[in-house]
Design goal:
Blueprint lengths: L1 H35 L12 E4 L18 E5 L6 E6 L14 E3 L6 E3 L10 E5 L12 E4 L6 E3 L2 E3 L2 E4 L5 E3 L5 E4 L8 E7 L4 E8 L20 E3 L1 E4 L5
Parallel strand pairs: 1-15
Antiparallel strand pairs: 1-14, 2-3, 2-16, 3-6, 4-5, 6-13, 7-10, 8-9, 10-11, 11-12, 13-14
The chain binds FE2/S2 (inorganic) cluster (FES).
Amino acid sequence: MDQEVDNGRRNFLKGLVLLSTLAVAGMGLNTALRVLSPPPLGISSFPTLKLVDSNGNPIKASSIPLNSPSALQFDYPLQNTPNFLLNIGDSNGNPIKIESVEVLIPATGEKYLSLPGVGPNGSIVAYNAICQHLGCIFPELRFYPAGVESVNIQGQQLTNVIHCLCHGSTYDPVKGASVVTGPTTHPLPQVKLLWDSSTDELYASLMIGPVIYGRQSDLVGEEPISGDTTTVVNVGNPFIS
Ligand code: FES
């Protein structure tokens, strides 16, 4: 009998020691993970970055081709965050002055005012180039310029739209990249461009609208862009030779 009691006590004490060890190990693991994990990538506020070409020379607004069949993109506000740079015209090759309009976020019912176009004709705008549905990027997500390329959407040939071939979402870049067709329930975020009319140079200075797809915040999730410029790249158009 005494032997049984001793065994019981011994097992109880063993259990206590095991629990304490596990608790200490758990705390140690958490602390170790905190120390080992790097702080989240990102920045604390939107930078103002000059748009430059691959040689570091400023992009001149007057030199951005109207209705270009090739896509111009630049990262903002972080690395690996592509945005379209568009100079939008009509099918006759005349620039369209892009006005500020009310943009609806279908998912929430919220509305916000888009930013007007900049440049000598007010026809230059920039939008995030990551589809708000499930994150497809160029070339699946691309701009169809008037007079150059059209896309069949619900039986209509449309131009001057940004359309995603992944699942069919369509955005209107003349109206703040608002939603034309789903399945997306969010417009594309817009980059605020500043145009210095004395130098014809362009700057990216802010983002408005929904948060960039796949990010908790526009300012978190990728490495910062170093310096005070961001490079505009011509990513071409694999569908037009
Ligand atoms: S990812 Fe663009 S429509 Fe689905």
